[in-house]
Description:
C: alpha/beta, four-stranded antiparallel sheet, 26 helices, elongated
Amino acid sequence: MDLATFDQFALSGLVTGCVYALVAMGFVLCANVSGVVNFAQGEYVMIGGLVTASLVGLGVPLAAAALAAVVLGAALGFVQERLTVTPIRRAPMFVQITVTLAAAVLVRSVALVVAGKDPYGLPGFVSDDVFEIGGAILPYQVLLVWGATAAMVGGTGWLLGRTALGRAIRCVSINPLAADLMGIDSARISTLVFTASGAMGALAGLVMVPVTSVSWDSGIEYGLKGFTGALLGGFRSPLRATLGGLAIGLAESLSAGYISSQSKDIITYGALLLYLMVQGGAFAVGRRRGDHAEAH
Amino acid sequence: MTGKAFLWAAAVAAAGLAAAAGAPRASAEDLVIGEIGSLTGPAAAFDKSVVDGVAAEIKDWNNRGGFKGGKVTIELLDDGSNAVDAVTVYRKLAQDKRINVVIGASPSPSLLAMKAVSDEFAIPTIGTATVAQLGKPAAKYFFRALPSTEDYMSGLVHWVKAHGYHTLAILNPSGATGQSEATLLKKLAPAAGLKIVAAETYNDSDTNFTAQLVNIRNAKPDFFYCGIIGGPSVTIFKQLKQLRLTMPVAIHSSSFNPAFYAGIGGIAQAEGVYTPIERGALASSASGLTLDLFKRASAILGHPATNLNTAGWDTAMMVEHAIETSDGTRDGIRNAMEATKDLPVIGGVMSYAPDDHGGKDERSIGIGRMVGGRIVEAK
Amino acid sequence: MDGIEQAIAARPPRDLRWPLFAAFLAAILLYPIAFGSSYALGAGITVGLMAIATVGFVLLVGYAHQLAIGQAAFCMIGGYGSAVLTTRAGWDPLAAMLVCAPVSMIVAYVVGRPVLRLHGYALAMASLALQLILGFVVTQTTGLTGGALGINGVPKFALFGHVLDSDRAFFTFVWLVVALAVLIGLNIDRSRVGRSLKAIAASERAASSVAIDLPAHKVQMFVLSAGLASLAGSLTVHYLRVIEPNVFGLQYSLNLITAVVAGGMYSIWGGIMGAAAIVFLRETLRLASLPLLEGVIMGGLTMIVLLLFPRGIAGGIAVLSERFLGRAGADFAAMPAAEGEGAAIPPGAATAGAEEPVLVVEDASRAFGSLKAVDEVGFAVPRGSITALIGPNGAGKTTLFNLISGDQPIDSGRVLLEGRRIDALSGPAVARLGLARTFQNLELFDNLTVLENVMCGCTRRTRTSLAEVVLRLPRIGAEERRLAAEARHWLAFVGLGGSEARTPGTLPFGHQRLLEIARALALRPVLLLLDEPASGLNDSETEQLADLILRIRASGITVLLVEHDIRLVMGLADHIVVVDHGRKIAEGPPEPVRRDPQVRAAYLGS
């Protein structure tokens, strides 16, 4: 195998991997602060892409469309937290899963009714040209994808590690009850994190449109792969979840390239299934919260 | 609170009933044609255009005065791209006494499921998919309108070979059409003396196609059949260009549609791309009646008819022909359909025989090429 | 979310079940006669095919509280299995169906057994992954499964060579399978398995403490639901006569979820109502030419029902029937106590060497970060004693209690029950070895009656298999009567005779304490752990409690209590262990301990 081909597989895997990574980070952050695994996480990505692309299609300038998409993503995160997470925080976990899953179906279906079935595309934000790196050819847009991802992951890391708000978020993640006792409003933190993760998902979605296009059902794939990434990262640390997401993107692209394009999904989902069956012990959040929720 | 639960359930039931009662109904004098289409689910992006084509032809029929002066209407039901629902709605249409013929604008698996029960339902049914088994072995009441996938692929392979190419790469989606195209190409190409140097697949839910395209590029084929249908076609086509696959490329004819052109950044991006297509859709080479039909269809649709539009249109034309030349009963329509020989439609001619319920055949297939924003017959 | 609590707490009226079932059977037989039209029959068959899967799904979702997002995977196994065996190998449809169901159940077991040890979303995701993998596999094995095109020409269903040609015959057969599924569900509902599942739903900790094996019960329901889903898949394929990958795709799984939620996931009948509601809804949307709205309505419906009416349609009907017919009592209350059985209860299992201590704690340590909550504490609980573990607030006695009961892992040291290490065992395993406990903040099963709460404590001595439960063989009835009699005995022992049919929440607080003790005693433990039993009790209740503890010891059960109330301890205990700042500071009979200067300092100083 020549190096250029490997570079091409790896680098393009790292582009989709970025979206998986951001979704994975959203999964972990939201699950940690609220105790609820939000299955609608992938839908934020879809909404971001779809809203931007359709608004641009209607003649709205790109910047305004992107802003609208991010705001809508944030609003969706906010509403979802208020409507589908807060009321069921203490419900048995299977109820939580079902409610957020239903929310995902709802968002997706509304997108279908409003935007139709056809995929939407956009030209590259700066240029539709491509550049070469190590023999791999990539559109300039991927620089934006990488930049946006790095900024969001880095920003989140800085926020969590260096600010008072970040400490509060970490506190709530470890023990919401204790956080409440310490005067941290864990309900507000949870709303904030969902809103932010909605906005970040939407931003990831919109920078991806020129690379992959977007349609009403794009969120399923991002959600599933992102979840798998989060799981591989242990479902505890946001940073490790992003690495998990990148790893999924990379593995997918490499297995499609070197094994066969038919096998890549069987490999990804087979790994997820095996991981759950064999190891499973990494469910720190699920176990603690599950105990709490189901014992109530 | 729990008391509300029941009230709520009752409200939903009532709303459902109201919706059912308020559903638009054709009046008794109209001629009603049943139609099953995939308006939702994975096949929706594809089948909507067929449904539009059917609607356009029926509108044209009504413009010409309709059936014996009465209005022709369509009872269109959705099968959600799923064979269970296809059979359920098929059963429903078959039980509707007003309806004596059914158009199946659904994907192959739905139509195959319908074919399996068509004898029981005893209502003439014509399907718009290209799978060969729909027409042969023939089921008494079931007809296939379009050329079979084999006709398309055979036409493609022979053209590619005749134009001096020796190696072929293929990329197909994992759905029914893609899979049968890939299977057929792997059989037909070697038989015609073409070597397949790369055969890749993708799922409609995929977002990254670099691996497949790079493998095809590295295989250095003389000709590349990129069988993209709906879903991520735009992304694949853009990546194909970005990754500099410079060999001649043919794509699936259904991808030549306005949404595709818009997605790839304008019709000019598709310049020079080939496609195996029904000759009738090649507006430039069409003449006489075919051109007239094509213009009428395009006028009603509001844009140049696509290959999928004409597939729907031609199917409806066949139905119109069978109704107009029969007594209008189910068996009458069936017999008239089976007796049809060389009915001229946009996409060629339609013929049936008792042992072959496949409508159009390889005679309808040509190779089109995008030149200056129009699909013309490739030289 | 009080709606969900209500839903868990409320139970269907029991004595209506068998009349309901008889009416249901009659309806199955009458429907094809009343509705001859092929459309009504077709709709009925569609509902029935789905109901076979949804009734099983209720057992998993509503009873075991586990969601399998990819439940249609098992319909796929049944459907493809039947299609391949009948068309490619010429098998009889009935034989094919009966082979596919166990295959599905084995797959469910292999996946579920490890995954269900994990919490929450593990099964949800694992089942989804399974379904997606199966989807890709059947799409790609074109030789066997026909790939994306699927398999055509699947024969009609046949019974012993007799083809069910008419819709009428097939309708009847499908609905008899539904009836079988309902029967299985109802048998489980009123068995120890159903009781255990409800106990798990109410409190996993308490369920563990009475030796109910949580993962095993969840796996059982997953396996059963998979078997039923497989039957639904097989029969669907013989009805459609064709199978392709999308038939049992993700959409079908989502429909199953919406069906059980809307129909009412806490009731077996909810599965049927949900299937009917979904088919009705989809037909209506199709009639109204609004199929695009299907996802919006399905998603919205699932959310709204779960958030506002978690018991669904079945729950609504139950509420109405209770309002108009009055609430039916539990059948155990009406069950006569078997003569003599109650009296024949042997005392606790304490029979081993009298000199050996029941419980030994050796150098137990547990730290939280830098805080050593328990620091190398060791003591023994003499057999037949009432041992008390005391100490000021924050001394580490609760942590020590948790180390013994297995609630918290031990950092170093050992805990031995009758010479066997228990510090690495799961809660149910420790309970099976004879360690029973109560909870400081009461963990009763509010969705069961008082009698059933105590019967859960007896569960570890049941000898019947799940198959017997499902088929309700005669041995089950005898066993149930024996358990009920034994539970009555313990209720009488703690002084709660006569409260059998009430729900725990309706008892005064002091009685709830006693009920918890009765439930723990029903395990027939060698050692009973009482976690601050006197907290929240008034003086006379405390006296009653002291009397009860003495009688418990008299019956041969050793008692270890963690207690705040020094007076109670001094009057009751014959062995006292005092801890402070995570370390043991004194151990011995009450009087010397009381005089110990360190103990006095600890208490006065605190």
